[in-house]
Amino acid sequence: MATQTLPELGSLEPNQHGYREFTLGKFTFNRDGYFAHIAWPKGTHMIPADAFLRAMQRDVAWGFFYGIVNFDAVVGTVNHYGNVDLYAGRFNEHYRKAGRDYSENFPAELITRVFQAILEDWTNAAFDPFAAPQETGSAFGPKNGSNKEAITRHRVTAKRMIGAPGDEPTRSDESGFPINRGFTDVPQDAPDVMAEPGFEGEVVSFNLFAYLSRSDVTWNPSVVSVCKASLYCPTTEEYILPVIHGNDRVEWFVQLSDEIQWEVEDRDTGALRARVTMRAGDVAAMPADIRHRGFSPKRSMLLVWENASPDLPALYASGKMPPTPVQF
Amino acid sequence: MAHSQATRFGSLERYDKGGVEVINDNAKNYVFSNVFQVASKAKPYEKIAVGKNIEYVIEAIRAEGTSGWRAAAHDEFALVMDGEVEVRLLKLDDPGAVPAGTQGSVALSGTPKGKKMGVVRARRGHMTLLPAGAAYQFHAARPGVVLLQTLAGRDTVERWADICQTTPRPQA
Fold first, then answer.
1. Is residue B3 in a domain?
2. ipTM
3. What's the number of domains chain B is made of?
4. Per 3-state DSSP, what percentage of chain B is helix, strand, and coil (rounded to 5)?
5. Does A196 reach chain B within 8 Å, measured CB to CB?
6. Are residues A86 and A43 in the same domain?
7. Host domain of residue B92
C-alpha cells in the first residue's frame, strides 16, 4: 500500500525539535531549530536550515542539474544521469588532503525520494525555499506545519516554445502569476501576431520579459525554447544562488536585465579564479572546469543557455573537449 | 510603502557593460561581450556569434531596414532585445530549398515562392518562433537588436577577439 509519509525513509519518531532524522547509505541528516546536521563516517557538518533547504530544493527540482550541485563548500551531489554521488568534502581541497572526504553513489530515484522526504518534513509552513528572502517567512524554529505546495511546484520545460500550441502556457494574473514586486515596471504588452488562416499554430510569439516578470521563484532555470539540444533556460534571480554550481559542460549566461555578480572558483579545489559582473546585454561563458555562485542585489532576469547533449560530460571529463567554448 | 527599484534593460543607445575581474585565470575563458555593443558596431543583419556551444550559437543581429529572406531546417527563435522588429513568415513552396540536416539558416535569393504565413510585430522582450522549413524576413524602421537562438551556419560571423574582453580587468 502506498503511503504519503514513506516512513522507511526517516525515523518514525521526531526529535525534540519535531523533525525526523533521515539516513541515506552512511550519511545521516538531522535538523534542529537553526541547522541541518549532516554526518558521514569521517566527519560532521552543519548548514543553516534555510540555506540547506534552498539548496536541496534546487537539487530536487532540477533533477540534480548538469554536473555538481554544491550545497556549500563541503556537501553536495554529482549527477551521473541515472545515478548520483552524495559527497562530503570531495570538492574541498582541505578535506581531501586530510583524507576526510567521503562519497557514496545512489540510484537517482532513491536519493530523490529521500531528499523529497527531507524537504517535506523539514520545511515549515511559513517557509518557501524557492522564494526570495524578502518574500518568505522563516525556516527556523521547531517544526511548524509543512509547505508541500511550495516544494512541489511544476517545473516548466517547454517542448518547443512557451505559448506554442500544446506547449507550456504563458503567465497571467488569472493563471496565478501576478507581476513580481521587483518587476512592476516591466511592460506587459503582447507582440502583434497576425497569422494567415491555417498558420495560427506556426506563427507564434510571446513576451518573454513579461513572462519572467511573473515568475514566483528565484534561481530556477526553466526551459522556454528548444533548438535541438540548445535550451534557453531563463530565470529570475534575487539575493544569492543557493548552490555553488560545478559545471560538467560549458554553460552560457545572457544578462537580460539588471545586474548579477558571479564568484567563479576552480571546480575541484574551490580556489577563486575570477569575479564576473554582468549587466543587461552582457554575455559570458562559464567554462566546464569551474564552479560559480551568483549574487543579485535586485531581482533580475538571467538567460541561462545550456547544451543538453548527453555526450558532453564524458567529452569534457576525458579532455577531448577543451573546458572553454571558444579559443581565440 | 514598499521601495521598488527600476528594472534596467539595455539598448543600442544605452548599455552599461560589466566585465571580468581576473583573480587567477584568463579573461578570454569567459568570452565576455555585450550584445548591444556588438550590434552597435555591426552591419545590418550581420549574424555575429556572441555565444557558442559546440554546434549551437546565439547571434547578435542589428535589425535595421529590411533583411534578405532566410530559412533553416530546424526551429530558430528570435528575441528582440531593443527596438521593434517585424518578422514576416512564408511557407516555402519548395521544401528542398533548405536540405534536411543543414545547420543554421541559409540565405534565399530574392523573394522565395511560397504561401504567406503571417507577420509578427515584436518589441523588446518578445520571442518569436521561426519554424523549421519556413522562410523569414526581418524589417525594422529604426535600428534594433535581435538575439537569435540557432546553430552555427555558413553566414555566422565569429570575431571573438574583436568583441570579447581580453584584459584582466574591464577596460573603462
1. no
2. 0.97
3. 1
4. 10, 45, 45
5. yes
6. yes
7. 34-155
User: Chain B closest CA to A220's CA: distance in Å?
Assistant: 19
Q: Using a CB–CB cutoff of 8 Å, tell me whether A202 touches chain B.
A: yes
Give the 3-state DSSP-derived string for A120-138, with helices as H, strands as E and coil as C. Answer: HHHCCCCCCCCCCHHHCCC
Q: Are A197 and A118 within one domain?
A: no
Q: Does B21 touch chain A (CB under 8 A)?
A: yes
Say if B42 is an interface residue toward chain A (CB within 8 Å): no
Contact across the interface for B129 and A259, Cβ inside 8 Å: no
Chain B residues inside the 8 Å CB shell of A279: 8, 10, 15-18
Q: Which of B33, B35, B122 sits opposite A205 (nearest CB)?
A: B122
User: Along the 328 residues of chain A, how does pLDDT read in single tens digits?
Assistant: 333 344 467 888 999 999 999 999 999 999 999 999 999 998 999 999 999 999 999 999 999 999 999 999 999 999 999 999 999 999 999 999 999 999 999 999 999 999 999 999 999 999 999 999 999 999 999 999 999 999 999 999 999 999 999 999 999 999 999 999 999 999 999 999 999 999 999 999 999 999 999 999 999 999 999 999 999 999 999 999 999 999 999 999 999 999 999 999 999 999 999 999 999 999 999 999 999 999 999 999 999 999 999 999 999 999 999 999 999 9
What's the Cα-to-Cα distance from A268 to each of A75, A117, A197, A245, A273, rounded to whole Å?
13, 29, 56, 12, 12
User: Are both A131 and A189 inside the same structural domain?
Assistant: no
